[in-house]
Structures are given as C-alpha cells and as structure tokens.
Records
---
Amino acid sequence: MNSPQIVLSFNEIMFFFTRAAVGAGLPYGLAEDFARSSIWIAAGGLDPAAISANALKSLDEAQSTISASQTENGAETVLKSSGEKQLSVLYAGPSVCDWISARSADSNKNQYFSVKNVDHPFLLAAAIGALNSGSWEICWQDSGGALCTVLTSQDGNWKTSWDPTDISQMSAAADVTIKAVESSLFKAEKWKGKTSYSEKNRKLVLETGVQVYEAWPIIHSFFSRCLVPSTEESRKSGAGAGLVDTD
C-alpha cells in the first residue's frame, strides 16, 4: 500500500468527517453520527475515508436520499426510502440505532429491523458497532448473491463472515436485516476462523494514529464546503489572523 496521505487522531476524524457530511448535505446531528461510525471503522485498523467517502458522494449526487418512512409489521420494523432512490445509510444508521435504544426497554426479544435498498450496507454495521449496545447480527446479500454478515458485540469486538477483502468495494445497495443475538455466538462453530477485529486494536490506533489514503481528498473536498472564504472585511472584524502580528 502507498504511504498515507494524512494521519489523523480520533478527535480529528470527528472534526473533519462531521463537517464533510454537512458539506454533503447532511444535518449536523446526523453528520456527528456519521463521524462516530467512521471512528469505529478506524478503531478496527481500517481506512475510514475509503469506506465512507462513497456514501457522501451518493447523497451529494442525489443517488440516495434521507427521505424515508418507517413501519412496523408484527415483530419486524421496516425502514425504506420514501421514493424510488436508494436510502442513504447516513440516515438509516442513526434510525436503526434509535430503534435499538428504544428496544432495550422492550420485552419482545423477537423483534428485528429491516432496511430496504440501503446504499452502503457495511456502514449500517459501523453505526451499530459505534453505538456499543448489545450484540447484533447484520446481514445482507452482495451484488453476486453471497450472504454478508457482520457480528458486533458490546465489548467492542466484531467479526465479518467474509475472508479479508476490500470493504470499500462492498458498496452495492441491498436489503439489510438487523437482529439481536447472544454474545456466545462469537464462539459458535460457524464463526470460527472468520475475520475478527478486536477492541485491543483501538489502543494501538490511539498510539499510532489513523492512516488515511487515496480517498482523503474526497473527504476534504466536502469538508472545505463548510469553510467561509476570508475577505479583507472579515479579517478586519476579527476572523483569522490580524492585519498586524503583535505576538
């Protein structure tokens, strides 16, 4: 792999990625949720820009929408786009997390959540992982029909059902199902030998920083939309450095 374009701390990811999402048209609260999901990805030792940049592009280019409707059909809660466009995961992720938070007080353990035609399924798993509330199984089929599953746990560990691969390429829209599972599933036979990401890795990333590669310019371009161009008048009124350096 080439040298990283930039190395960021978790706080810097929160700062840049939140504003990048606002630049792409997301409300500030949802933008913060997006940044927290990006930190979760980074804590796993992955490049958050490579995995999340296309979700910003999909929203910005109007391929996806944050306009959605949510219904309950028995034990199933269904979230889908209000129109014909794909549903943006930037809206779907926080919606699922709200459902999980509300569900924790519900005695019906058979409830599950379905998101229809969401543009970047893996980022749903990132949103749920960042919430850090219980153990969850997130499932969808990729463009080739193969079943993809992410298993998250409250202790910060998570697993993927596929062999090591470039997650940033797994961006085809899909229907996703989210259901609660027992933490013991992590040790089940079907999960033995699967790719595992440990909470211990977070400590290493905190020491070394998050390496961000080729997708960084995409994040930064959206971030730059939130910057206010400086003018002579703005500098006189106190924005930025003063006209005379007196330090």
Note: Confidence is low (pLDDT under 50) at residues 241-247.
---
Amino acid sequence: MDLKGIVNGCRSSEPESIRALYDLYSDTLMKQCMFYVRSRNEAYDLFHDAFLIIISKIGQLRNPLKLESWMTSIVRNLALQHIKERKRHLPETEMADVIDEVDSPYYQPVPLDVLMSMIERLPEQYGNVFRMSVLDGLSHKEIGAILGIEERTSSSDLFRARAILK
C-alpha cells in the first residue's frame, strides 16, 4: 500500500490503513516524543495522544506527501503544550555540579547518538530549553512563553546547558 492509499484509508477509518500508518511512523514519532520528556511513560502517553489526534484530523491533510512533516508538527505542538502545562521549574538539587573548564579551545566532533544521550541527561529544564532553541529553532521569547519562564531565564538555561555539554 502506498502513502496516498494509507492516508485515504485512514480518512475512511480502515483499520488496516491505520495499522500501516502506525507501523510506518511509530518509531519516528516516539523518538520525537522522547526528545521532549525524560520519562518513557510520559513519551508513550504523548505519542498515543498525538496518534489519536493524527487519525482524527487526517482529513485536514491536503497533501499526503507532506504527511510526515504534518505528523511531526502535531507531536511537537502536543509535547510543547504538555511541557507548558507542567510548568515545572528546575529544583536547586538538580543543578549541575561544578563544570570543569576545558583547556583546549578545539573540541572533537561528538557522534550524534552520544550527543543526544548527553542532552537527555541534562537537568530537565536545561534540556527542554536546549532542544527548543537548538533543535527547534525557537527564540527565547517563544521558549519563555511555552515554559512559563522569563526570556532571561531561557537564555541562562541555554548557556548553562551548553556549558554542561562542553
């Protein structure tokens, strides 16, 4: 079944098309959820909520060739909404300990999987700000509005996240 057939089948609520869509994109969408929340259980909840929205709103998709980016936007918006609703601020106990300065101004490139693992280990708010700023390209004003923090706090958190990652 091709992508257009899957989308049309999902619009008609055909179980085999919905299953095909799930099989094709569940891993990709779940990984995206994991970028936004640390807990696997929270990520599964976000993913399943997003998938229900995708299935219920797939009739609004104009171009089946843009399916993946459309679904990614839904997941991203739902994850950001989830973060905003929680409005959890970083407790002092989660603050990183002293950061050792590196003598050399040159750093060897870090493999992507190692970098993503490092980002996941950042304190939660630092990780959220880093992902939104660096990966999603949001401004500090937008990040502040989403997380319910000041622009300056977003900027500071990004600076500290980068320092920890160094």
Note: The chain is about 70% helix and 0% strand.
---
Amino acid sequence: DQSIAIPTTIATTIETTSNSDFSLTGLWVEGEAISTKYTCQGEFISPPLQFSGVPAGTVTLGLVIIDQDANGVVHWAVANIPAAETSIDEGVLPVGAIHATTTQGIVGYWAPCPPSGQTHRYVMTAYAIAQQLEFADGVDAATLLDAFEAGALAVAGNSFVSETP
C-alpha cells in the first residue's frame, strides 16, 4: 500500500468554547434598521463589517445573511474570509473569499428588499472555521451553510431590519 501525504489547512488543535468573545458588528445598532444604502432602495452594495474575538485555531471565516420573514431566504453567503481579516469594507470581498449562490440565484450580495410597505428581520451570522473550505464561487448557499455548521469553532450573530416604503 502507498499513502500520499496531502497538505491540509485544518488547525492542529481546535479550541471550542461556548463562552467565546467572537462577535460580528455592522454600522447599525443590533436589531435596528440597516442604512438604505445597503438595500434595494440604495446602492445595492454589501455593508462594512467588523469581526472581533476570533478564536484560536480559526483558519477562515464564513458569513451569511438570512431573511427571517421570508422563509429563510439567503441574501448573502461568503466563505474563506482569511481569519486575519478583522473587517470587510463595503462592497468588497476579501482576497481569497468566495460567494455562494443566494436563494434568488445571484452569486454575491442580494440587497434586502422586503415587499412594499413591509419590514423584514434579517439575521447575519459569522462562523469561525478550522479549515479552508474547498468550494468555488457559486456554490449553493445550502451546501455552504452545511459546511459552516459542520466546521464551526464559534458562531457570532447580529440582526437588523429593513423596510421598503
């Protein structure tokens, strides 16, 4: 028998903690309205975000935005954000990161856009992951979310609302 050594990005030690200081913040107050700049009424660009308290052993970060009032519609799913990135600039995907295909079939950010006269609640979740995920741009969001859940060292959340006049 022959064995082949394959280099891996999996952390050699994994420290999981339910008391993690891992957090995700945006330009809005938790649970309050996101600026219209980042919605379908504005510039349709992704918001700037900050990660903090990234746990030891994290290789990459993942991110997803889900509309809680539209049966879990995925508006943005990003994987392989380098763990050293402490922020994401508006409208920019960090080098090496990939976008998944949203529920609407868009590869990239699909701005919040509730039906006219409605306010929807959105949950943004960040995942600290112990390995590089071997997916390409356009992977199905559900597949990516399964990988996030399977490989998460820590999870952080944030929420916002968006209203369309």
Note: Confidence is low (pLDDT under 50) at residues 1-19.
